[in-house]
Specification:
By secondary structure, the protein is mostly helical. The protein contains five helices and no strands. The longest helix is centred in the middle third of the chain and has 13 residues, at about 70-80. The chain starts with 7 loop residues before the first helix and ends in a 10-residue tail after the last helix.
């Protein structure tokens, strides 16, 4: 499990080390699935546009992120498999379902990535 205080580039670095076979078996959201609602897009780029327009989502410090698809996949696992809020992380409330964590993120405006660290 990756710590919640890792930078975007560190997370991307971890994701590029993930075996492609492992990604086939994950239970998270795909890169075409919105992290915050049930919307599905034709491509990752269209999905990012949807999440930006509808949920004010953005990836901070994109110049340091070398693998956007890997990073979105990582976030999809955190939200879709771990039912974890992007802002609260694993220190926040535990959610029982994808729908519950998505509702929390939308209701609280938690469509931002927690980048605070030591």
């Amino acid at each position: 499990d990756l710590g919640e205080k890792e930078s975007v580039s560190e997370v991307s670095s971890h994701m590029s080390d993930v075996d492609e076979e492992e990604l086939e078996d994950f239970d998270g959201l795909g890169v075409n699935e919105c992290l915050f609602c049930c919307h599905w897009s034709q491509s990752m780029e269209k999905n990012l546009k949807h999440m930006t327009k509808e949920h004010s989502f953005f990836i901070p410090d994109t110049e340091f992120c070398t693998d956007i698809a890997g990073f979105i996949t990582y976030l999809g696992v955190k939200v879709g498999a771990d039912n974890e809020c992007l802002k609260c992380g694993n220190e926040g409330k535990q959610f029982r379902s994808l729908e519950a964590v998505q509702k929390h993120m939308v209701d609280k405006g938690h469509s931002i990535i927690n980048t605070e660290g030591d």
